[in-house]
Fold this protein.
Amino acid sequence: MQKLTAPEQSPLTGRQLELHQLWNLFEASTTGHTHVVFVGGEPGIGKTRLLQEVAARIEQGSALVLRGGASEAEGMPPYLPFLEALGQHIRTATPDELREQTDPLASVLATILPELPLRLGSLSSSYSLPPEQTRLRLYEAVGLFLAAIAVPRPLLLLLDDLQWADTATLDLLCYLAQHQATSRLCILGAYRSNELVSHPALERSILDLTRSRQLTVLALHPLTEADVAELTTALLGVPPHPTLSQLLWKESEGNPFFLEEVLRAWLETGTLTLTPSQANISTSLPESLPASISGLIRYRLARLPPDVLEMLRTAAILGRTFAGSFLAEVMGKDEELVEEGLLTTVRAGVLRSDLPEMYTFSHDTLRECLYSEVTPTRRRRLHGFIGRVLEARLDQEDAQQFAQLAFHFARSGDRVRGATYSELAAAQAVRAAAHREAMHYYHAALDLLEKQDQHRGPLLLALGEAALTAGVEHEAVQAFEAARVWFTEKPDVVAAVRAAYGQGRAWARLEAHASALAAFEQALALLHEYSCPEQVQVLVDLGTLLAVSLGRYTEGVTYGQQALKLARQLGDRRLEAMAHRVVGNLLVRGNDLPTGIPLLERALTLAVAVDDPVEAAECCACLTLAYFWSGQIHQMKESLLRRMEAAHRCQESYQLRHIYPWLAGCAAFQGNFAEAEQWLAQAETAITSLASPEPRAFLLQLHGLLAVSQHAYEVAEGYLAQAVALFRQMGPGVLIWYLPILGWVQLLLGKRQEALAFLQETETLLSSHEPGTILTGNVVVYLAQMALLLQDRERIARYTTMLLPFQGLFLDWLVDRILGELYTFQAAWSDAQASLGRAEATARREGLLPELALTEVAQGQLTLAQGGRGSVARARRLFELALDLLQELGMHGEALAVRARLEQLPERSSSRNARPLPAGLSSREVEVLCLVAAGKSNRQIAEELVLSEKTVANHIARICAKTGTDNRAAAAAFAIRSGIA
């Protein structure tokens, strides 16, 4: 009987355009631009065949191809497509190559790639992180591994059958698309488009990647009649008669797999007649020929020997790919006999054997049909056989096997083993940061356990933690509640506390503060006779909830201090570090910085002493804000750099979401705007894949403030409006920090009504917060500036009083400068002068050059407002100093505003004491020249005038040019002759 040419051996037909597109996209990726491409289409349309053709052509060059695929068979571990692809590389690369490619993240990769330690030996353990950071660290490790693999040669990563991919796989894929944009990597995936609706995670991933322009989707359409004729010729070896060609096109509907099955069926039934030159149809078609793909497959399989067909049905339960020896062991048959039967199916095109003793179904539809033919009773028995064989072979180091064991035993009727391995599979999924998959296994274990089984309570607790980490907070609440009831009845007080504590955390995530408060208080009530680490955790979170979310700082600090006292009693230095941090942070936010900052510094010392870089990073995060608010910008920057070091030590890139923006802020506060833009660019990369909107909103707000410094108010309004829209989603407790900034900018733009609406909304929100806290001060700083623009005397007086507790602080702006402007408006001259003097001292000490310029402007305004003899000259000098500094900083918008003020002043000749500066020198150049004449070095001048040494050198060069001198000594002599020095 004539046999068909294997599809993979025949030329690709009807897909030249798609092949050309894929080749071009791969070529583009080789220059260091990652591309992600999905090929979509119905089953049998030729997606896998197209991927194989692309891979074959690429492998002919110098590129590397790694292959993986998802499987419909349950019991597959998380990240299966990546495990297959990277496992292939790990098995073939040399140990030296692997060490270079995985260092220093090998231990992180080993949590999902058990082959790695087998090739590299024992690996050093990595620091434990909170769940969300663990997931990001794993994704980062996989991304860096792939990028390293692609360094010596371009990499094509093939991921087939994504319609069956687990959520963790799709999340990782999206992360790679967003974070490996400059790798020589092309990710080529395929999925069944008809199953997209039933897979929300895949649908969401495609939508997200398309929206961010990081995905190209190619849809495969049915073959044309001409394509069908060409493919038929390739499969049969002779061209079809036009009548046959038209009939085949109609019967197959342009589906290549369906076409192949129709041809196979017609060949086997003698429906086709072949001559050396042509293929044709016989006079009549068999009336019983099935009209669907599955029907044709069953028609074809029925012609195999019964023992071979039974073997295939058992193999279908094993999965898409299986070992012949394993199948023989499951069936209890001689391995050689099984191999002979399998070779029969290979010749029939049902299986293919790409590796020795390994077999793969040639199409998933074949396996699906075979699986459905196994009766439920026999299927249950086979699952039991398979489970016991796997259990006998179990390698405790290969945790991927737990998922398979859980699947087979759960369906075998062995409830005890099913529950046991489901729990182990769930724990492994948690270690692999696949928390939705862990939830699936925890549910499976709970369904298999008896109602009173002793494991039920711990499983409910674990389910709650997994759900909380996966962002399914409502399910977490339910699981924790069931666990609390369970442990209360046992009774197990500490476990019941953990459950109530988990409930509180879940409610807090949902912004249900009253429910969270009740849960935390319930946990404390359960612990009234106990002193344990859990109590410290509850006290810490309760204190934070009260102070930060509910604005009840006094109560919050009280609970925090109880936590600190208990941590000391327990002698747990890690808990003590955490408690110090939380109490210090609450005190700082309550505006008790002198007490809070030493506690935070003590917390950092403890964290370093116990070698806990995760806690150290959190301590540095709190210290960053504390130093910022206290106006200690140098210490703030040091704290940020220490936080970055700690984040790198524990491989926690999640910390970078705030480190880069704050480093940008430090640079901007000191007038280094180019450096600030560089940090902002890095921040954009760091926050790309984060689910929380907060980092994005914070970055937008920072962009807005930088635009304000350049007088680009409309640009600033755009950024700030986006930020406020995001912050509004997070609730009023977060929104209040940022809302008045937008109102202030709108007032600067002259949008009075819009600004007043924001001002009134902010005042309403502020009324529910405890006065005197940093939050209050931060808000009032902006409300005060709005009141000055509105010349609202009542508000100016009220805000002045409200700002007094924050003298000496830096709340986005120097509070003393704002107070100085408020006092100036109220004609409180001595208070204004004192406030502006403090602001100037802080600005000079910390190198806050933009603030120094604004303070000089405010001092000039105060001088003019006071009036008196020489006031215009003194104001002019202050404005000129500010103008010089603003021009040096590149703050041209502010400089124009100051120049306008100078032009409004009376001419110099109107003052009897005014005389022009010699040689056309500016006020700043005169200052520099006086210090040169005093024998100061460039460094000393820079420190005294709060300038960079480069700026001082530029000033001296201009002075020499204007005065006609060529060295410092000559310039000093000019200063003495001119009466300047």
